Amino acid sequence: MQQVLPQADAVERAGDGLADLYRARKPWHTLPGPLYHDPGAFEADLDVIFHKTWIQVALVADVPEAGDVYAFDIGRTPVLIVRTDDDEVLAFHNVCRHRAARLVPNGRSIVGKLVCPYHQWAYELTGALIDAPHMGQDLDKSLYHLEPVAIRVIGGLIYMCLSDNPPDDIDAFAQILTPRIAPYDLARAKIAFECDLIEEGNWKLTMENNRECYHCGANHPELALSFFAVDFGVDPDMLAPHERRELEAHNARCATQKGEWEACGLVSSALESDVTAATNYRTERLMIAGNGESQTLDSRAAVRVPLSPTVAHGTGDTHLWGPTSWNHLMGDHAVVFNAFPIAPNRTLVRTKWLVNEAAVEGVDYDRDNLIAVWMETNRQDAALVAMAQAGVQSAGYRPGPYSRFTEKTLDDFISWYVERMRVHGVW
Ligand code: FES
Ligand code: FE
After folding, report:
1. Is the CB of 110 under 6 A from ligand 1?
2. CA–CA dist 106, 108 (Å, integer)
3. Is the N or the C terminus of the chain less surrounded, counting Cβ atoms within 10 Å?
């Protein structure tokens, strides 16, 4: 996947007009329209969110063996992740130090060395330049090491920050996240299926859409089978007396279940970062509705073998959101979503389904059954995001209010975003 984006300097192009839009953002409201489609706003987002913030971008399962390389673009910045012969997972800019060619194509490859296709400069998997033909014996190769990129592996998830000075609260985040996801042993899981989908919308609309389930009942009949709608917020004044009693009973069941999970070492409580924190997240383990096991069409496990020996079918769904990612970790499989900005009004959503490395397709799981719910849900979400994008670009758009019952997570996310832009001087 090659992405070509217009060149511009984010903050210079932003100017006062853009700054005024951030100042004009009303709490508990969607953003002023241009912040969802203006090229200058997009540049500012690339600069601040995608270059200076820790974002979840990949999995160690993307590079399971020494010599495996996984390459992709963050905005217009090509990067690669490699597993070395010493079993280290490293990341570099996917840019040759000679005359800047892309070293490996996007996607996955298996290499002994990283050899540039242009003039055959060759690099060790550690990034060290080892061969530069016809450059003279006096070339100091140590000056042309591949440019490293900061990554942090947390429980098999790879977080990346393109800045030379990444926010240091990643350590605190790792401490919080590690015990929550360690039981899934994602570092030893394998990718059973992967799918790229282009959403015709700004990346923030992609993220707003997946951070709420206000829309799920009316739009996601397949996903709704495994979700308790009330878990995502409800206006109590809209409930009939018997519905209130049902809600109270459900909440009591959830509290009991979470207590049992916690007693088994499966952290379940809801936890989210402060809107002023550099590294943004929200996580919680929720019960699965219906048969209670998995996000499938019958809400039963899609994979016979649990993801790891320390989880089991029926241990709920650990939801994990970052500013550009969302994840569902269940007893039998996990689904991991990463959003990559392509243009002000286009976003790549890359979805990966993870299963136990020992699970065999056709024996332990049926692939179509494994992916059915989220393939359909992703298509539905893409249509919703495109619809909202058309709206925010229209002359009739005015920022709309978030529900304090069902969209608090959106106000948190957008407030965090606006604060990041302020901290980095966009306004
Ligand atoms: Fe890579 Fe010349 S650009 S070897
Ligand atoms: Fe959705």
Report:
1. no
2. 7
3. N
**pLDDT at res. 6:** 41
Please state at what angle helix 203-210 crosses helix 408-423, rounded to 10 degrees.
150
- Which string of DSSP letters, residue by residue, matches 94-153? S--TTT---SS-SEEEE-SSEE-TTT--EE-TTS-EEE-TTS-TT--GGGGPPPB-EEEE
User: How far, in Å, is the centroid of ligand 1 from the Cα of 8?
Assistant: 25
Alpha carbon of 132 to ligand 1 centroid (Å): 9
Mean per-residue pLDDT, 389-418:
97
String of DSSP letters for 363-389: TTB-HHHHHHHHHHHHHHHHHHHHHHH
- Assign 156 to helix, strand or coil: coil
Q: Is the C-beta atom of 99 inside 6 A of ligand 1?
A: yes
Task: Identify which of 317, 319, 305 has the alpha carbon closest to the alpha carbon of residue 261.
Answer: 317
**Do 25 and 31 meet the contact criterion of CB atoms below 8 Å apart?**
yes
Instruction: State the ligand closest to the CA atom of 210.
Output: 2
Task: Give tens-digit pLDDT for 66-125.
Answer: 999 999 999 999 999 999 999 999 999 999 999 999 999 999 999 999 999 999 999 999
Q: Is 96 in the pocket of ligand 1 (CB under 6 A)?
A: yes
The verdict on pTM exceeding 0.90 is: yes
Residue 125 near ligand 1, beta carbon < 6 Å: no
**Residue list, CB under 5 A from ion ligand 2:** 381
For 199-232, write each residue's pLDDT tens digit: 999 999 999 999 999 999 999 999 999 999 888 8
Q: What is the DSSP string of 2-46?
A: --------HHHHHHHHHHHHHHHPPTTBPPPGGGGT-HHHHHHHI
The residues with which 325 forms a beta bridge, in sequence order, are 322, 338
- Provide the total of helices (H) and of strands (E) in the chain, helices listed first: 9, 17
d(CA 217, CA 297): 15
Q: φ, ψ for residue 265 (rounded to 5)? A: 85, 10
Ramachandran angles phi, psi of 186, nearest 5°: -60, -20
Q: Which amino acid is located at 7 in the chain?
A: Q
